[in-house]
Predict the structure.
Amino acid sequence: MSEQQQWTITATEQPPEWLIEAVKQHTPASSGLYAAQLLWQRGIKDRQQLTAFINYKAYQPASPFEFGQEMHLAIARLQQAYNTKEKIAIWGDFDADGITATSVLWDGLGQFFAQNTQLIYYIPNRLKESHGLNNQGIDNLAKQGCKLIVTCDTGSTNLEEIIYAKQLGIDVIVTDHHTLPTERPPVAAIINPRYLPKEHQLFNLSGVAVAYKLVEALYQSLPNVAKYPLEDLLDLVAVGLIADLVQLSGDCRYLAQMGIQRLQEDFKQPAAARRRPGVGRLLELCQKSGDRPTDISFGLGPRINAVSRIQGDASFCVELLTSRDVKRCNELAEVTELANARRKSLQKDVQAQVAQKLNQLDLSTTSVIVLEDAQWPAGVLGLVAGQVAQETGRPTILLSTEGLGTGDWGLGTGEDSSQSPIPDPQSLAHGSARSVNSVDLYQLVKDQAHLLHRFGGHPFAAGLSLLVENIPLFTAAINQQLRQSLGSTTLIPTVQADLTVTVADLGKELFLELKLLEPCGMGNPVPKLLIQNCWFENAWHRNQQDWQGKKVQYIKAEFDIRDDSSRSAFPGLWWGHYKDELPIGRCDCIAEIDYNTFKKRYEIRLIAVRSSANSALNTPLSLTPFILDLRNQEHSALSTQHWLNPSHPLTALIIEDCPTNWDDLRIWLRRCLATSRSTPGFNNQQQLAIAWSKPNHQPPNQIWLTLVGIAKYLSRTNQLVTRVQLLKKIGISDQTLLVGIKTLKYFGFTVKRQDHYLQITWHPSDSTENLADAAVARFLAAVREEQFQQQYFAEVPLSTIVAIASYEN
C-alpha cells in the first residue's frame, strides 16, 4: 500500500560538555551522549531546563487560578451549588481524553457533591450523536432537575446549545481545550487554555488536564471537605494526556510524569487493594505494567477509544476507571477488551479493502486520497485514514454510506462545524479525514463547505458528511485546491530518524539513557534510531490472539537483528507485517527501542526498513544544505562562531524574517545550493541558518485600525510613504498589504504610486456598507492566514524543513 519513502535524519550539532556530564549523572552506566544530543536538539539549553525536564519534583507547576477571572467565576458557581445543594451534570466526550476528563470530574467533584444524587454524568453516543452539547441531552438533564452543567473536553463553540440550556434555567461551566468561540458564550465560566499565551505553561493542556485544574482550584477553595487527596486523580490525568497526543511540555509533562508514577504504584498493589482495579485489569489484559507512556498510547488509550468506536455508548468506561468494585471492574474490562479485539479485526478488514482500492489509484496524480465504500464501519475510518496518510504521505479521506448514524466524528476537537439543511440520511456519506506532511486538512475541507452537509475538525483531523452524489465533485475540487497550494512540491511519505546507532549500542543502557526523555509525545517524540548495513535472522510471524484465545486478523513479525558491530543479535518485532516483508541480505532500518514487560526483554520496534542497495537515505541528505536551527535565539548568538561550523569556508546564509509560505523558504534554499555548487572543493555543502523569532502578533482587527489610522494621517499631512515603511509599521506581508490597500478604497482612500513612494488621499466613500464589510472581512482573513502560517514556520520541526530541502534536489 505504501510507495517509496523519503528518509531523513535530524541535523545535529555536538552538545556542550556540561550537558553530557549532567545527563551522565542520571545514566551512569552509559556515556549520556545520545540523550544529551537529543535534549540539546529539542531545546534544552541550560541546567535549570534540564533539571525541570528530568525531575518533576524540580518543576514548579502553575496555579489553577492562572486561568484568571474565569476560574474564579467557575469556583464561585460551584460553591453556590455546594451551598444550595443543586444537582450538577458532567457533560463529557467519548474519546479517551473525554472519558478520563469525565472520570476526573466524577471522582473530584464527587468529594463535594453526592454521586448519583447531586452529581451525574452524560456522555454522547458516538454512533448517534456528535461531539459537544445537544438539545436532546440538555432536555434529559433538565427533566432530572439539573441546574448546572460542567463540560469537559468539549463545549467551547456550542453557543446555541448553551443559550438553550440557559432558557431552561441551567447554567453551564465549560472546561475545554479546543477551538475558541468568536465571542464569549453566555456561560457561568469558560476555562480554556487557548485563551492563554502560547508560551504559557498551561497552554497545551488537554481536556482531562483542564478538568483536573478545575478540581484543584475547588480543593484549594474548600480545603476541609475532600476525603481523598487530589493526587489520586493524577493517574487518570496521565492516561488522558498521553492518549490525546497533546504536546507534553510545561504542566502537561509534569502532570504526565506524576500520573505515570501513580499508575505504576497502584498497579504493583494486589487487585483487591488497588484504587483503580479497572485500570489495573486493563493493564493486565494488554500485558503492560503502567510504568511507560507506551503502556497508555498502545494499551489503555486504544482500549478506551474502542468502546465508542464499536458500541457507540462508552458511558460505562467512567465506572470502569473509577469504581473500586473489583468484580464489576473485571466484567467491564472484559467488555472493553472484547470491543478492542473487534476494533482490531474491523480495522484490519477495512485496511485490506482500502489497499485494494489504492492499487487502482494513480498516486502520482493524486494529492488527496478520497475513497468510499458502503460496507465500511464508520467507527474505524479515522484509524485507517491515519495509517494510509502516513504510508502514502497524502491527506486521506475515507467515507462510508453504512447505516443512518452520524459517522466517525472521532476527532476530540470540538471545532466549529457547518451544517446545511438536513437531507435524507440514506443519501449521506459519513467519514473521517487525517492529514500528514503539515497539510492543513481542516482548511482544505472547510473550503469545500458548499459541497458538504456537515464538517468539523482541526489541521490534522476532520470529520465530514456529504451527499453521495457530491463525492466525485468534492474529490476533484479538494485535489485541485491542494495541488495549487503545493505548487511544485511533491508529497512523499517521510520517516525521520534522530540518531544513528549500531546493534552493539542496543540494550538496557541505551534504553535507560533514552528513557530520560519520557514521557514522549508531540514536541518530544519517541527517539527514532537509524541502524545501517544490518540484516535479519530467525524471522517468524503469527496472528495475534485476543484475550479469550480467539484468532484476530492482526499480524506481528518477530526477528533478530545483526550487524558487523557485534557478534550478538538483538530481538525485535514489526507490528502489522509478515516475516516475508523483511528484506533479504543487508539493509537499513529505523526503529524504536523498547522494553517488553511480558517477555521481560529489551527489543526494537521496527518503524521502516529498506534494502541497503535501494536506500535513498544518503543521496537526498548529501544534497541537503546543512541547516542550522537558530529560531528564537538572541541576536548576539547569530554572530558568534559557536553556532557555525568552524571549518566551513563560506559565510552562512541567515534568514531572520519568518516566512509565510514554503516558496519564501525555497528561494533561500536555492540561493544556498547555488552558492555551494559555485564553490570548488566544498562537496556541495553550504550552511543555512534559519534565525527567525516566534512572531508577536497583534489582533487582526487592531492591524486594520492601524492601517486606517496611518492612511488618515498621511492623507491629512500630505506625506509620502514607502512600501517598506508601511510593511514595517504594520507587520504584514506584501500580499496582505495589497489586500489592505484594495480594502481602503471602499472607505474613500485613493492610493497612487510616485516613484518609490505611495501617496494616500481620502475622500468619504459612497460605497455600500455590505461591500465595505466584505472587503474588511477579506483583509482580516488574509491577516489571520498570514499569522497562522508564520506561527507554523516558527514551530515547524527542523526535520520537515530538511525534507523540503531534499525535495528541492
Summary: Confidence is low (pLDDT under 50) at residues 404-423, 616-625, 635-650, 677-684. The radius of gyration is 28 Å. The first strand starts at residue 6 and ends at 9.
